[in-house]
Amino acid sequence: MTNKLLLRRMSQDDERALEELFNAHSKWLYTTAFSIVKDQGLVEEIVEDVFFKLWQHRYKYASLENLESFLFVCTKNLSYDHIRKRGNRHFISLDEQMLNQHEMGPDQIYELNELNELIALSVKKLPPRCKSIFELVRNKGHSYKEAAKILNLTPKTVENQLRIAAQKMYIDLEQYFQKMKIKVS
């Protein structure tokens, strides 16, 4: 069933339509959130929050044109919100991430590794200033204020550059997300 039809059914209070959307999209959203927050428990909470938001505003989103974009942006924003709330201090190194993979199945490990490689390639393509801000905040765990001070910028500039980075990276990763949607649909 198409996303548009499921959204229309949801707007008529059909909970099974929400469940079908969750089953079709949650797997790649888990991978997306995990690539940002590196915490399996938090990932589940974030993805559930995304679909809760979709359900809460089901009448408003009944005519949503690009559900995948909405889900991606919502997942990314909620993930970054959680990071900001916990002070950007609890990033897990890649080695620790590999140790936590015993909880994941082989397919999830492969998909996570593939996504991490695509993200790394996308980061390399960012403009220099955007790339250094992204690395300070997302990879090294600095707050916006700390990154702004290090680079002699305003926190708002850091925020804007991260938004630009997210947009450019989404464009780079869009085919991956489409592929993941096709795999789980």
CATH topology: Butyryl-CoA Dehydrogenase, subunit A, domain 3
Structural class: mainly alpha
N/C terminus separation: 9 Å
DSSP strand tally: 0
Given the C-alpha coordinates, what overall shape results? globular
> In sequence order, what are the helices and strands, one letter per element?
HHHHHHHHH
- Share of residues in strands: under 5%
Using only C-alpha atoms, the radius of gyration works out to 17 Å
Percentage of residues in helical conformation: over 70%
Averaging pLDDT over every residue, what do you get? 79
**Total domains, how many?**
1
**CATH domain class:** Mainly Alpha
Number of helices: 9
Give the low-confidence spans. Answer: 88-102
The major sheet is characterized as: none
Question: Which architecture per CATH?
Answer: Up-down Bundle
Describe the structure.
The chain has about 180 residues and is an all-alpha fold. It has a single domain (about 5-95, about 105-185), classed as Butyryl-CoA Dehydrogenase, subunit A, domain 3 (Up-down Bundle), CATH 1.20.140. The protein has helices spanning about 5-10, 15-35, 40-55, 65-85, 95-100, 105-125, 130-140, 145-150, 155-185. Helix 1 (about 5-10) crosses helix 2 (about 15-35).
Write the layout of secondary structure elements.
Blueprint: H1 3-10, H2 15-37, H3 40-56, H4 67-85, H5 94-99, H6 106-124, H7 128-139, H8 144-151, H9 155-184
Task: Compose a concise summary of this entry.
This protein is mainly alpha-helical. The protein contains 9 helices and no strands.
